[in-house]
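tool_call: predict_structure(chain=1)
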Amino acid sequence: MKKAHSDRDIRGVLIPVTNGRLLLPNASIAEVITYAEPEPVEGGPSWLLGRVRWRGWRLPLVSFARLAGYADSEGELGAKVAVLKALGDNPGLPYFAVLTQGFPRLTTVSRDELVPRDDGGGPREGVLGDVLVRDNEAAIPDLAALEQRIVEAMAGAQ
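tool_result:
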């Protein structure tokens, strides 16, 4: 028998990144597209991989694994790009993209299944907190801070 979802359940997405996973609300994902080599952004930080084209936009492509310190490099073989809806009111950044290592997976998360986790490593850039969702370790990204970092990086780059 299938478990009924309560009003307190959250439809989430587990996004695989190099050496980790992100947990985001399903509503934050606009689309998942095939990876294509991004246009370089001169003078940008190492986590800003460049810009990718999507529906007439040139979106900043972020390596969350590099930003949060999960990995120094990323593989492109089999990689996908998750297009995320920006939460800020910046008309120049309605969307941005995150490099993923495979397809995001839909999941329903109840309050009981979301267990805060502390790996003792201290705070990581762009991470609000670490959680355990059933048997999956995941980071909850700080999307507002990430958007601000992207805006600053794009302003400082050519």
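agent: The chain has a mean pLDDT of 87. Proceeding to next step.
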